[in-house]
Amino acid sequence: MRGPLGAVIGRYPSSDGSTQVGGIIRHNRKCRDVAFLVIFISFWVAMIVNSSFGFNKGNPLRQVNRVANDTVHHNDWLTYGLDYKGNVCGDRHAHPGLRELELTYWLNPNQVYLSGLKNSQFKLADARSICLLDCPIPSEDALNWVCDYPEGEIRLSVDDWIDRNYDYFEFLTPEMRNTSLQLQGPCYPVIFPSVNVYWRCQYVARASNVSLRHWQQMGGVNINDDIIIDKSIHRSINARSSVLKRYVADIGKSWPVLIVCGGLLPLFVSVIWLLLIRHFVAAMPWITVALFNILIIAVTMFYYLKAGWIGNDAISPIIGAHDPYYHVFGREQNHLHAAAVLMTFIMVVSILASVAIVHRILMATSVLKANGVAAKIIGEVQALIIFPVMPYAILGIFYMFWFGAAFYLFSSGQIVQNNCSSNCCAYDLASKRVNCDRCCGYSIHYTPHISIAIFFHLFGCYWATQFFIACSSTVIAGSVASYYWARGETSPEIPFLPVFSSMKQLIRYSLGSVALGSLVLPFVESVRFMLDSIRRKLKVANTTPEGCMGKTTYHTSRSCFQSIEWIIRSVNRNAYIMIAITGKSFCRASAIATELIISNILKIGRVNVIGDVILYLGKLCVSLSSALFAFLMLDTHKYRSAHNKISSPLLPVLVCWALGYVVATLFFAVVEMSIDAVILSFCQDSEEHQGTAQYAPPLLMETLGDQNEMQRLTQ
Predict the structure, then answer these.
(1) Number of Cβ within a 10 Å radius of residue 583
(2) Which of 606, 584, 590 shows the shortest CA–CA distance to 675?
(3) What's the pTM?
(4) In which family does this protein belong, per the annotation (predicted)?
(5) Three-class SS of residue 145?
(6) H or E segment at 711?
(7) In 3-state terms, what secondary structure has residue 442?
(8) Which of 128, 152, 298, 651 is deepest in the core (most CB within 10 A)?
């Protein structure tokens, strides 16, 4: 059993003989866990280097036939396709300039057909493609053509070429016409209608009889008319890598939504919640539970709307006007269906759980009393309400830097020409001949180990977020503890002095301990993520243990890791409180906090559990309101039109939900850490004074000192 903390608790005399308020925050301290502070600083240096790599490799996208200083916007890189020259569609700096020419169209239908054949060595990336303003459709009484960019003997400007619907077949020499009839360009027939699917012109496998008849009368080679033409492009559009790029591009396009719904809205709602908890303590649990149920039902209904299960507002991969009877199914719709099912399950479980919470609130008046003590402290130490704005601003700056670096990391790579062995001969207007040497298509080759860099970047975001939240929690705990051990006596310095004093102690002595504490949870979750990936692969490979013991181990291991994660999260928060009170290292503070909790579990167990649940529901209310307003903003015309259209609201909504939860955590920590710091200080106070707390406020003594109440709560 550890001995009493002695001099670190309560008031102590200063050198001039006067008594100082909050002496526990300043007395007998030294730097703790310095090694982990060095590791954290080194990690930040690595984050900067990693981000610099992304900014260096992701921004200057050097392309074939480009001026050295030309660049392409990273959203173009993630959204649009490549043409037969290696240009990114929509790039105004390309040669020729492709401003507004954002759609990728495959010129040779036989190459598209060949790429869709099973076991074919020809890839769609090697099929000849071009950037257009709109997707071509066959003529009703003639044969339309789409020709290469005008150059060489074709003396047309790009604007004139667009005005002519990309057709200059009448200007071709007999040799050029002959190669065009062989599907070698420079002009190609429009036999199949096409529709804009995520800025790619997807063939509709219904050849125009009129156009096909004209083509055959002119002596054109046979064109394969098969559903494979449709499926080949559709398979490329729905590839996992293509979907991931679109999701990342959605984040870039919806940055105003992230700022409003992920930053400003949760700030406003959190401050309102703090003010309400300050003045309406008894009513807030009821308001929180009711609002949570309303919000989760509303968000679930939006998922149903976007998944197409109710109403007519389902997302569509088709951009712009199209045949209403033609439907294209995208992988994003599958993801929304899965999200809707998951939200339905969460909604049902949450509503049932909230009913149980209502029953417990009726019993646990101690929760309301503890909230009342916390509200009184917040009212006295007024800077506690304002303080979360500081870590909020720091995190806001960090997230802007982090998202920018993430976009560049995802777009880091070079456009290089493929090495293909297939016959891709095409007429070259510049050299005035059919070229079979360098006719392969272009692909984006990413920098080696880019996946490691992205994973490191994601982990860095999580650790940094946990670190700033932990710093904020420690400062709040120190401020509340200093007020508790001063017996709640006020002075002209009380409203602001504890907060700044606690910040000073954190920066001077405890940053290493906070760095260690914030590392533990991300580390455990990373290990759990890797183990989950291994389990999924084993499941796919049908190597799941079949014996009773093997199955038991297999299914319980995941539950064990989730339990460990929850325990570590709880110990972390209480450890931060003891770090603020005692100035001990993280491990020592965790041990003290754990011992206090175990020895006083009958007094504080139910108060902590129910209080944490109410506060957790409050944070979910803030984050769900962010998600709900994100749905509303993304449903406006700006994000449904051609240029700014997002492929799916799923990822922007999830990011807004996560950002809203982080902001709510910063502000709700004022109440959360106040309650926990008061309770742990009460336990320490009782232990120091033979079971009778000497510094506790009367309301807290009435709550935690009432044995009848405690017996009723623990039944």
Answers:
(1) 24
(2) 606
(3) 0.79
(4) Belongs to the CTL (choline transporter-like) family.
(5) strand
(6) helix 707-713
(7) strand
(8) 128
Distant-in-sequence contacts of 8-12, Cβ < 8 A, 24+ apart: 8/581, 8/582, 8/583, 9/485, 9/581, 9/684, 9/685, 9/688, 10/485, 10/695, 11/485, 11/486
| DSSP string of 222-268, one letter each residue | P---STHHHHHHHHHHTSHHHHHHHHHHHHHHTHHHHHIIIIIHHHH
What values do phi and psi take at 578, rounded to 5? -70, -30
Mean of the pLDDT values across residues 545-570?
A: 61
Distance set, CA 80 to CA 132, 188, 232, 454 (Å): 11, 22, 18, 21
Output the six-digit token pair for 627: 């998600």
3-state secondary structure of 201: strand
Helices assigned H by DSSP within 27-157: 34-58, 74-79, 109-116
Is the distance from CB of 113 to CB of 231 less than 8 angstroms? no
Query: How high is the pLDDT of residue 580?
Result: 84
For 379-414, b/e burial (b = at least 16 CB within 10 A) is eebeebbebbebbbeebbebbeebebbbbbbbbbbb
What is the C-alpha to C-alpha distance for residues 391 and 375, in angstroms, rounded to an integer? 21
The residue length of the chain stands at: 715
* Rounded alpha-carbon distances, angstroms, from residue 266 to 365, 409, 415, 683: 29, 28, 41, 34
Cα–Cα distance for residue pair 612/367, rounded to 1 Å? 10
HEC profile for 337-397? HHHHHHHHHHHHHHHHHHHHHHHHHHHCHHHHHHHHHHHHHHHHCCHHHHCCHHHHHHHHH
Sole residue written with tokens 């290292």: 585
When pLDDT is cut at 50, 70 and 90, the band that residue 550 belongs to is low
Q: What is the DSSP letter of 85?
A: T
Rg (CA), the chain: 32
DSSP string, 615-630: HHHHHHHHHHHHHHHH
3-state secondary structure (DSSP) of residue 653: helix
Helix (H, G, I), strand (E, B) or coil at 281: coil
Task: At 557, list the tokens.
Answer: 């291991």
| 253 neighbors 644 (Cβ within 8 angstroms) | yes
Q: Cα separation of 405 and 474, whole Å?
A: 29
> CB under 8 Å to 128, separation ≥6 — which residues?
84, 106, 107, 108, 111, 185, 188, 424, 426, 439, 441
User: Is 90 exceeded by the pLDDT of residue 381?
Assistant: no
Q: Which two tokens stand for residue 132?
A: 């257009």
Query: What is the SS3 assignment for 411?
Result: coil
Task: With H, G, I as helix, E, B as strand and everything else as coil, classify residue 129.
Answer: strand
Pairwise CA distance, residues 123 & 422, whole Å:
9
Which single residue is written with the structure tokens 């850490």? 673
CB atoms closer than 10 angstroms to residue 524: 17
**For residue 391, cis peptide bond before it (omega within 30 degrees of 0):** no
Distance CA(493)–CA(495), nearest Å, equals 6
Cβ-contact 61, 72 below 8 angstroms: yes
Q: Which two tokens stand for residue 447?
A: 């920098």
Amino acid, single-letter form, for residue 278: R
The pLDDT tens digits for 589-632 are 888 887 777 777 666 655 555 667 778 888 999 999 999 999 99
